[in-house]
Amino acid sequence: MSSQCRSILPSKLYRAEQIKQNEADCAHRNGIDLYQLMEKAGHAVFDCVLARFPTAQHILIIAGGGNNGGDAYIVARLAIQSGMNVTLLAKNKGEALEGDAKVAMHSFVSAQGTVLDLDKHLDSIRQLDVDVIVDGLIGIGLEQTLRASTAEVIEAINHNSAPVIAIDVPSGLNANTGQPLPIAVIADYTVTFIALKPGLFSLDGPDHCGQLIYSELGLRKEFESSVSTDLSLIHRDTIVPIPKRKQNVHKGSFGTVLVIGGALGMGGAAFMAGKAALRSGVGKVYVMCEAGNEGMITQLCPELMVTGLEMLEVDRYLAEVLPKVDSVVVGPGLGLTKWSLAVISELLKQETWYQTPSVIDADGINCLAYKLDKQDGATQDAFARPDKPWVFTPHPLESARILGETVQSVQADRLGAAQRIVNKTNSAVILKGNGSIVASKGHSAINMSGNPAMATAGMGDVLSGVIGASFCAWQLNQTSLQKKLEIATYLHGLAGDFTAKESKIGMIATDVIESLPAAIWNCQEYNNKVQGN
Ligand SMILES: NC(=O)C1=CN([C@@H]2O[C@H](COP(=O)(O)OP(=O)(O)OC[C@H]3O[C@@H](n4cnc5c(N)ncnc54)[C@H](OP(=O)(O)O)[C@@H]3O)[C@@H](O)[C@H]2O)[C@@H](O)CC1
Ligand SMILES: [K+]
């Protein structure tokens, strides 16, 4: 998501329906009506045209039948008034328009603008040689799969090689979920109004928005103070600062993490989680792995305290070590075998585990989902326990396993799926993927750091180690579980951003581990400078 304009972004996100329900009241309280708001929206988009394409002569504008189309007519009028050659295509030549959008169309026509019939000019959309296209087909009014004729218009816009500015939301994109329904305009810029919508930041949203330009239309303060939300963004300005360390400290000051994983053939995952915890500043890291793997893990990282165990030795080890650690990372390379299921069964018997901050990742999730599927009472009881300091970190497939759903239903509404996992496990959740979602009861936040180079094996193991560290290495004792997880997720992505080369191809998980100290330092320095700490 590195192309998005982060520095000016607010932290709150609002669903389309919250904006629709509240924009009129907010505008009225600010002394303007909805038509004046539409004028402001049109001006904001035209400012973008002028700023990004100052030499543009010929502009193609697509206007839909709702208020998103209304904004488009304002842009078209401003373009004519500034001497541009404007081609405006509208459904039914705009004849069915009502309300403010109709007024906007008349203002365009009064400025000598001509409205052409969209359906008769599909080929023009594909082929017209223009300097810029403005997409005002559909905004936050889209609720269900596109009609075929509208999908065809979007396909035609995407076919034209001219740059595209989308008004409010790329047409066809679900503003709440980031899902194209099933196709959406691929814009170079999206000028979005009043409040940020979650779909612009998650799933396919960022690939369709291009650079995001937030235009509050003078309503941000009014809107944020009068409308509450359970959604937020995670970016540099929203994370709680990690304090700088005092000089007089020792390894005991920064906690102990236990990593449980590393079945035969998968020792590398436990190594990566353990090393990521160390690189995030943890004082001591224990690794409990399957007997036979201890040598290779120690060789990869001699700073880890590694113990290889047979099945029958696990209970004694856990009873002895769990009370000594500040957090547990369960899952990296754990496998789904007799050994790993025995490990999980022993863990479920340890009362200490339920009070210990724990990350449950990868095969930790798969083992628990498997046991749940087998109606295992201990797993059901563990899920039912309220207020555990646990976080599940599933990718979409693991999410589907926990929920007993399909990957499609998880991806169709990632924010909803994250909350369903929170409710089912009584734990926090990080639902991985583009725009990872950090969720706990009643709140979900979408992370903005990270890049496509991170789509590679082992990256989740690194994240689990960073989260393990967030519980003890950063002296965030007064910070909520949600906020700790937000910092860990952000720093993991930032370390990936620091490491990725331009092509965003070929970075590996162990590269990211080495960038963790720089990412932490960078945020501490930023905090010092910007917030004066
Ligand atoms: N309120 C204001 O004054 C302000 C509002 N603002 C702007 O208004 C936008 C919201 O406007 P909105 O609510 O009118 O909805 P909007 O995004 O234009 O979509 C409706 C159009 O989409 C079409 N359509 C829908 N579903 C479809 C489907 N499945 N398949 C195909 N078509 C479908 C639907 O067609 P219909 O179904 O009616 O034939 C209709 O033509 C918002 O994003 C912002 O840009 C700003 O100017 C600030 C002031
Ligand atoms: K649009």
Automatic annotation (TrEMBL):
GO terms for molecular function: ADP-dependent NAD(P)H-hydrate dehydratase activity; ATP binding; metal ion binding; NAD(P)HX epimerase activity. K(+) binds at N68, D135, S171. The chain crosses the membrane at residues 254-274. PANTHER family: ATP-DEPENDENT (S)-NAD(P)H-HYDRATE DEHYDRATASE, ATP-DEPENDENT (S)-NAD(P)H-HYDRATE DEHYDRATASE FAMILY MEMBER. It catalyses: (6S)-NADHX + ADP = AMP + phosphate + NADH + H(+); (6S)-NADPHX + ADP = AMP + phosphate + NADPH + H(+); (6R)-NADPHX = (6S)-NADPHX; (6R)-NADHX = (6S)-NADHX. GO terms for biological process: metabolite repair; nicotinamide nucleotide metabolic process. InterPro entries: Carbohydrate_kinase_pred_CS, CARKD, Nnr, Ribokinase-like, YjeF_N_dom, YjeF_N_dom_sf. Its EC number is 4.2.1.136, 5.1.99.6. SUPFAM superfamilies: Ribokinase-like (SSF53613), YjeF N-terminal domain-like (SSF64153). Keywords: ATP-binding, Isomerase, Lyase, Membrane, Metal-binding, Multifunctional enzyme, NAD, NADP, Nucleotide-binding, Potassium, Transmembrane, Transmembrane helix. Binds 1 potassium ion per subunit. It comes from the Bacteria. Coiled coil: none annotated. Bifunctional enzyme that catalyzes the epimerization of the S- and R-forms of NAD(P)HX and the dehydration of the S-form of NAD(P)HX at the expense of ADP, which is converted to AMP. This allows the repair of both epimers of NAD(P)HX, a damaged form of NAD(P)H that is a result of enzymatic or heat-dependent hydration. Catalyzes the epimerization of the S- and R-forms of NAD(P)HX, a damaged form of NAD(P)H that is a result of enzymatic or heat-dependent hydration. This is a prerequisite for the S-specific NAD(P)H-hydrate dehydratase to allow the repair of both epimers of NAD(P)HX. The keyword Lipid metabolism does not apply. HAMAP family: NADHX_dehydratase, NADHX_epimerase. Its cofactor is K(+); Mg(2+). Residues 19-225 form the YjeF N-terminal domain. The lineage of its organism: Bacteria, Pseudomonadati, Pseudomonadota, Gammaproteobacteria, Alteromonadales. (6S)-NADPHX binds at residues 67-71, 139-145, 168, 269, 333, 395, 461. In the N-terminal section; belongs to the NnrE/AIBP family. This is Bifunctional NAD(P)H-hydrate repair enzyme. Residues 234-523 form the YjeF C-terminal domain.
